[in-house]
Design brief:
Elements: H1 4-7, E1 22-23, E2 32-33, E3 41-49, E4 52-59, E5 75-81, E6 87-95, E7 114-121, E8 127-137, E9 141-147, E10 155-156, E11 164-165, E12 176-180, E13 192-197, E14 203-207, E15 214-215, E16 241-242, E17 245-246, E18 251-252, H2 257-264, E19 291-299, E20 310-317, E21 322-329, E22 337-344, E23 355-359, E24 362-369, E25 381-387, E26 420-421, E27 435-436, E28 439-440, E29 442-445, E30 461-464, H3 483-487, E31 489-492, E32 498-506, E33 512-521, E34 549-555, E35 564-571, E36 576-592, E37 594-602, E38 611-619, H4 647-654, E39 662-668, E40 671-676, E41 684-690, E42 698-704, E43 709-712, E44 720-731, E45 734-737, E46 744-747
Parallel strand pairs: 1-36
Antiparallel strand pairs: 2-26, 3-4, 4-5, 5-6, 6-28, 7-8, 8-9, 9-10, 11-16, 12-13, 13-14, 14-15, 14-18, 16-17, 19-20, 20-21, 21-22, 23-24, 24-25, 27-38, 29-32, 30-31, 32-37, 33-36, 33-38, 34-35, 34-37, 39-40, 40-43, 41-42, 41-44, 44-45, 44-46
């Protein structure tokens, strides 16, 4: 938004808009990158829970602290969205001190995290969903915290010990979790959980289903044999520590030489790139692949048994800078085949980091750059881009063939603090619900973002509404990191001409007739000991007092032909800068249709105006149209009861599937081709295998429709497996299964 925008608007204080009903359909709304502007964020990890996408990030604090180092990071944060363009700030969800087992220190280098949802059994044996935060410390250790909600509060899940312990040479950073449900998301008992991490090599292990220990039975055959029973020989004993003890179960993929190149790409530095694998002898076997760090594993099953379903994304360590690249494989632990370079760092930015998710039928790559004011390699900002898969279950190229990267970020104006558009909305924002003020598409200052103290430039900030002073049961410390989860988040640090924009706000056909907001304001008492940055600018202080001002509510402010001032609230002393009071105004003519809504703040220069908690519009009441009640005709014939059966009920009653038979099983070059007999009324088939005849069977092949032949690629050569299959029919949204076939013994050739 240009500086001149504010000057184009007459300063008018109104409490209502008179005239005709306000209806305007703006241009197609899109998300604006970077998607968080109130603080520096990095290392995105998305998680879908129901209809909500949660986005977890680290926080770069270096420019907001008086600290001399190249990286200052101590906390993890959470944001959420239902529409992909407006993100709600849930604040700090965990801090290094959530896990602080070794005493305090100022900078923990709390780097890239991953949060996942996992069903576990409670004390009564009931399945409940928990949320696990996996996080690294100082490049040497990885630990896990647990919460009942996606936004926390989180508590240490392994008190007194780190999940993965080690030294700097182990490269214990960037943990990523993949949960394999084997095509049965409701079969919690048989989930397999894998943890990946590392720089400059890739380590992995299988976790127990309580998420707080390593399961050495990596191939899940019920026995710990061979490599499973040994510690990883490429690392010292101290770098094979699990919960403080040297144990088997930690493994590493081959990342050097020809095998490493085939799996994870040849480095742009050439095949002579050496020196980062700690204990291998000098020579050609030491030449590293393109992998550097940041693993991320997902499954995208396209239903074709001939394509790989598992995707291994990673940060590539190339010249002149980091990249996002990916490989594919037939199982969560490979073997991996390198595919392509997806996204390069652009405009000289130093680093990048991926997080990938499918949400509401769309595929998203979250990444980072340095586009906020003050942005550097240690002060980054998270962005998002959509992508698609092709008919071979690979990622579609968006760029010309002469480009190395398959997609570009889309930055047109490289001025720091300038937004660039990315993904389209997948939903609308409902203004008639109670909305959080910290739900933001974009925020800045009408005079431009540049200015203010060192952190992110001008614009609003956020803080926990209250401070938690409870003592944490695990650490025995005051659990300040639980403040946002327990009390919520508010918008603060509001200066003159700051603004917040929310997009794709749908007022519907009835329209809005009033507005209310929860706001707190103090008396403007100056801070006794303000902290200043190296430029003499006062650093953001969440405890700063406020003086009052105005909140103007606009729609479509950036469109000169459509913008309208809906109303203004005069804010004065509410008793305390953290004592919230409801303010509001009426709208004379209903506001209908979709709009971008702007909250523009004005008041005294060089002062904090007020704190902003929630907002809500009131919808015009339209009474329902009465429907006349029909008068039944008089009949002289007594009605006879008639049984009615719906189509689904009829199908449920009549569908009884015969069990299929194995017509043919062939094994060649590690692949097993299976052909089943066709079952009448079947909608598909499931083929399951186990390492033991009476062991735990897992689905390894799904055939849909009339297809009865498929290829299994996830089995190991020279191994004996036991196989069975069943048919299913889709009935009323559920599957009806046949009995299993007789069990077949298969040796993989």
């Amino acid at each position: 938004m240009k500086k001149i925008l504010r000057k184009l608007v007459a300063v008018v204080a109104v409490v209502a808009v008179a005239g005709s009903s306000i209806t305007y359909m703006p241009k197609t709304a899109s998300a604006e990158n970077p998607i968080v502007q109130t603080t520096y964020t990095a290392d995105p990890s998305p998680l879908v829970v129901g209809d909500t996408l949660y986005l977890y990030t680290t926080r770069d604090e270096l420019r907001e602290q008086k600290y001399d180092d190249w990286s200052y990071m101590n906390e993890w944060r959470c944001y959420s969205t239902k529409d992909m363009i407006n993100f709600t700030d849930h604040g700090q969800i965990a801090h290094a001190q959530t896990f602080d087992k070794d005493g305090g220190q100022e900078n923990w280098r709390a780097w890239a995290q991953h949060v996942v949802e996992m069903p576990v059994k409670d004390e009564d044996g009931n399945w409940v969903k928990k949320y696990y935060l996996f996080a690294p410390f100082n490049g040497t250790k990885i630990d896990v915290a647990v919460a009942d909600n996606p936004w926390g509060p989180f508590e240490d899940a392994t008190p007194g010990a780190y999940l993965i312990d080690g030294t700097w040479d182990a490269g214990n950073i960037d943990p990523a979790i993949f949960i394999e449900d084997h095509g049965n998301p409701d079969d919690y008992e048989n989930y397999d959980v894998y943890l990946y991490w590392g720089n400059p090599y890739i380590r992995y292990c299988k976790l127990t289903n309580d998420m707080i220990d390593v399961d050495p039975d990596t191939n899940d055959d019920g026995e710990v044999t061979g490599e499973e029973a040994e510690i990883d020989p490429r690392f010292s004993r101290n770098d094979n520590k699990i919960l403080g003890e040297v144990k088997p179960g930690l493994h590493s993929f081959q990342t050097y030489g020809d095998e490493g190149y085939a799996s994870f790409g040849e480095p742009s530095q050439g095949k002579d790139s050496t020196g980062k694998f700690p204990i291998e002898p000098e020579g050609s076997e030491q030449k590293r692949c393109a992998f550097e760090e940041g693993p991320w594993v997902i499954k995208h099953d396209d239903g074709n048994p001939e394509t790989d379903d598992y995707f291994f994304f990673f940060v590539g360590g190339r010249t002149p800078g980091e990249t996002v690249e990916y490989s594919t494989g037939p199982t969560p632990i490979g073997p991996w085949t390198y595919q392509s370079l997806l996204m390069a760092r652009e405009h000289g930015y130093s680093c990048i980091h991926p997080g990938i998710v499918e949400y509401k039928g769309h595929n998203y790559l979250f990444y980072l750059n340095e586009m906020l004011v003050g942005g550097t390699g240690s002060n980054r900002s998270v962005c998002v881009k959509e992508f698609e898969y092709d008919e071979d279950n690979l990622i579609v190229r968006e760029t010309d063939e002469d480009k190395d990267a398959y997609m570009e970020q889309g930055i047109e104006d490289t001025t720091k603090g300038t937004s660039f558009f990315s993904v389209d909305p997948v939903d609308v924002l409902n203004p008639y619900l109670l909305n959080q003020a910290e739900t933001i598409c974009w925020q800045s200052n009408l005079g431009g973002a540049t200015g203010g103290f060192n952190g992110t430039g001008r614009g609003v900030k956020t803080k926990a509404k209250e401070q938690c002073t409870e003592i944490d049961d695990v650490t025995g410390k005051e659990a300040f990191w639980k403040s946002a989860a327990m009390y919520g988040v508010v918008v603060c640090d509001i200066d003159n001409d700051d603004y917040i924009k929310v997009r794709e706000v749908d007022f519907g056909a009835n329209g809005a007739v009033s507005f209310k907001a929860s706001i707190a304001c103090g008396q403007g008492t100056p801070l006794e000991d303000p902290i200043v940055d190296d430029k003499g600018m006062e650093i953001f202080n969440p405890n700063a007092d406020t003086v009052g001002g105005k909140l103007e509510v606009w729609v479509d402010y950036e469109d000169e032909d459509a913008k309208k001032l809906i109303g203004t609230i005069d804010v004065s002393d509410t008793g305390d800068t953290n004592a919230y009071k409801e303010f509001g105004f009426d709208i004379n003519e209903p506001l209908t249709g979709k709009h971008d809504v702007y909250f523009i703040f004005s008041g005294e220069e060089d002062a904090k105006l007020f704190n902003f908690d929630t907002w809500q519009f009131q919808e015009k009441y339209v009474p329902p149209v009465a429907t006349p009640t029909p008068v039944p005709a008089v009949s002289t014939v007594a009605p006879q009861p008639t049984a009615t059966v719906t189509d689904n009920e009829a199908k449920t009653e009549t569908v009884k599937l015969s069990k299929p038979k194995f017509k043919n099983i062939k094994s060649k070059k590690g692949k097993v081709t299976v052909t089943l007999s066709k079952v009448k009324k079947a909608d598909g088939y499931q083929v399951c295998v186990s390492n033991k005849k009476k062991g735990k069977y897992k689905i390894v092949l799904k055939l849909k429709g009339s297809k009865t032949t498929g290829v299994i690629k996830s089995l190991k050569k020279k191994k004996i497996y036991y196989m069975k299959a069943r048919a299913y029919a889709n009935v009323n949204g559920k599957k009806v299964y046949s009995k299993y076939t007789s069990i077949k013994r298969v040796k993989v050739k």
